[in-house]
Amino acid sequence: MPTLVIVGAQWGDEAKGKIVDVLGAEADFVVRYSGGNNAGHTVIVAGEEHKFHLLPAGILHPGVTAVLGGGMVVCPPSLLSELDRTGAGGRPIGQLVVSPAAHVVFPYHRLLDQLEEEARGANKIGTTSRGIGPAYTDKVQRHGIRMGEFVRPEIFERRLREVLAVKNRLLSMFGAAEIEFEALFQEYSRYAERLRPHVAEVAPMLQAAVAEGKHVMFEGAQGTFLDLDHGTYPYVTSSHPTAGGACLGTGIGPRDIGSVLGVCKAYTTRVGSGPFPTELTDEVGELIRDQGQEFGTTTGRARRCGWLDLVALRHSCRINSMSGLILTRLDILGGIGDLKVCLGYRRDGMELHSPPSLIEDWSGIEPVYTTVPGWDEDLRSVRGLQDLPQSARDYLELVESHTGVPIAILSIGPARDETAVLRPDLIWAR
Predict the structure, then answer these.
(1) Cα gap 56→58, rounded to integer Å
(2) 274, CA 20 to 30 Å: which among 118, 129, 227, 374?
(3) What is the per-residue pLDDT across 68-124, written as a single tens digit (0 to 9) for each?
(4) What is the CA radius of gyration of the chain?
(5) Is 41 one of the annotated active-site residues of the chain?
(6) Does the pTM of the predicted model rise above 0.85?
(7) What is the DSSP letter of 254?
């Protein structure tokens, strides 16, 4: 069946947005299934840069139905601003559909996010302060406001009064000013009015599309090791960016997933706090950051950079049941010299072959490296394996042999045409 999940295979920021845009040309539906505007995808089309935080990157194809699934938390002013910006000047874009089960992010979520992060003192998680964690907390505590309630005025007023009374008590405990109901209600009612035409049941629509054999692509946000259950907890996001989250956040069953492609960089990055065994804090790390312009789309923060970690990547392949890998940013490693690749972990004289579950067990881990030759050639014109220098081909073979997963696509540069499809049979399962 032609259904495809695009998932981040590392700690996020793997250039998923570009891949979704490229493959979106063949899609009927592109579906975000988790997270909120803490995500950031950058797409370049005809020299024009588009930054997405909530909208699926596939919306740039006019024939696509872009869906925000029930597993998401949605900030209305951010979504509307992004929608206006993307369609500015009459630019044709896809149709937007928002699940009534998606939860709404309000100003009190953002404020509590900041206050809670400050209260952690030296143990900060590195949150984006977009209110994502508190919004998911409300969801789990079963007093969040869903999009379906938000766009129905008579329900929204009642629910907002109930929830705001509780939130104002929390804000008072932090010593912060309370939020006045009427101003918040009036402002967000205007957003609800604009979003109402886009809210429709998502699960039956996607289930019918799958039954009809339409091309449905699920767009992941963040990355595998930021997953709430499988990531480096507590330095994780508040949702499920793994492939399994595509089922949880949309209503598609596991047996309706045809292919899973994991997007990974040719090196490793992460933003915020948390373990990072292959991190480079020297001039090589700075060089990778500078050549790769490794700064967050959402926060602008400098990303931590390090060597490729194949222990983590192999584990990610298994968690996500990957059909293939999409390797990005191979060109950034050009001119660095010999490259190191992590093939194992060592702690207290013992070898580890998979990442630990508990954060305490990451302490003392040392990466076990192999050193491989680098390359000096400019790879931006590469469109197939035959265009790569031998050392770069050897690098790809090392990734494939250690993970047991073939590389389906190479992304060399940010533009649509800077892409080499190596295994088209792995993309849309038939």
Answers:
(1) 5
(2) 374
(3) 999 999 999 999 999 999 998 788 999 999 999 999 999 999 999 999 888 887 777
(4) 22
(5) yes
(6) yes
(7) G
